[in-house]
């Protein structure tokens, strides 16, 4: 079908207090296999990302502090996870999963990373459970290796991709587009190339109408030859950390909209799963699985 990055460390390197919402990293592959949306051959296990690719995005001082576990306590608290070698290794593996998936997308049209979507990681620091910005690292990798010339990042998570916006703020070859809850974290927003902030309780109709109008214009104007899509399912009305009012069906139609446009314009796409914090794990798995189902139907 299409390549899917998955590694055991996605789940098992996380501290005990954060295990519940992260169960999706273990359960989502099981669901995709059980229902036949994916086969075992679709999954690949990423290696650890080479530091030169990380350093193309993140400053050396910050990366060294992560690797040596010498991050200032205040900076570590901003990340939200207790820092460990396993956690840093996990982030390096996630980044490589997105790089490798992006490379594969040129042949398969679409690829997935079961984890990723770490869009709160800045060039200089991490925050909100994001240490390294996987899609930013992969986007720069494609540019540096002449695999793409113009990139569009479509971030439809409920939270603004503030780190991604900061990283590419002076890079005209990467267009950053973020939709998010107006009153959601981060409370101080960065400036993406295009930001659309939704009011609390925004429903399916308004959300879908907005992106169906915006994304084709961006494609026509920016003319990307590669798209990164952050498909967080925290836009659901049930999400504990989100304030929007979308349904599971509306979330699936969002994914279908993105994939249909990628297929129409023949632009390869890499998808990182992003957030999802509904109290019922079944809701999270169903919403994320819908993203894969939509891709299977369209590509």
TrEMBL record:
Keyword Hydrolase belongs to the record: yes
Domain Histone deacetylase: 25-284
InterPro entries: HDAC_classIV, HDACs, His_deacetylse_dom, His_deacetylse_dom_sf, Ureohydrolase_dom_sf
Gene3D superfamilies from the UniProt entry: Histone deacetylase domain
GO terms, molecular function: histone deacetylase activity; hydrolase activity
UniProt keyword Hydrolase, yes or no: yes
CDD domains recorded: HDAC_classIV
Keywords linked to the UniProt accession: Hydrolase
Any one Gene Ontology BP term: epigenetic regulation of gene expression
Family stated for the protein in its record: Belongs to the histone deacetylase family.
Official protein name in the record: Acetoin utilization deacetylase AcuC
């Amino acid at each position: 079908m299409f390549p899917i990055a998955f590694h055991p460390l996605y789940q098992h390197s996380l501290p005990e207090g954060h295990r519940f919402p992260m169960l999706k990293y273990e359960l989502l592959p099981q669901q995709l296999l059980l229902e036949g949306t994916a086969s075992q051959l679709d999954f690949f296990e990423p290696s650890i990302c080479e530091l030169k690719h990380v350093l193309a995005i993140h400053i050396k001082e910050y990366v060294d502090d992560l690797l040596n576990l010498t991050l200032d306590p205040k900076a570590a608290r901003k990340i939200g996870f207790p820092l460990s070698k396993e956690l840093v290794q996990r982030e390096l593996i996630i980044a490589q999963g997105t790089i490798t998936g992006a490379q594969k997308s040129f042949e398969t049209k679409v690829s997935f990373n079961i984890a990723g979507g770490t869009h709160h990681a800045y060039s200089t620091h991490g925050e909100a459970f994001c240490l390294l910005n996987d899609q930013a690292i992969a986007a720069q990798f494609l540019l540096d290796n002449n695999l793409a010339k113009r990139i569009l990042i479509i971030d439809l998570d409920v939270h603004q991709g503030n780190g991604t916006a900061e990283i590419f703020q002076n890079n005209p070859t990467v267009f950053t587009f973020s939709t998010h809850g107006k009153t959601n974290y981060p409370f101080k927003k960065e400036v993406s190339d295009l930001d659309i902030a939704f009011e609390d309780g925004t429903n399916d109709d308004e959300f879908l109408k907005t992106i169906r109008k915006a994304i084709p214009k961006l494609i026509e104007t920016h003319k990307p030859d590669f798209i990164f899509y952050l498909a967080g399912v925290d836009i659901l009305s049930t999400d504990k950390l989100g304030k929007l009012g979308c349904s599971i069906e509306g979330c699936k139609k969002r994914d279908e909209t993105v994939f249909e446009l990628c297929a129409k314009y023949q632009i390869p796409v890499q998808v990182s799963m992003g957030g999802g914090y509904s109290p019922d794990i079944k809701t999270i798995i169903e919403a994320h699985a819908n993203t894969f189902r939509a891709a299977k139907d369209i590509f």
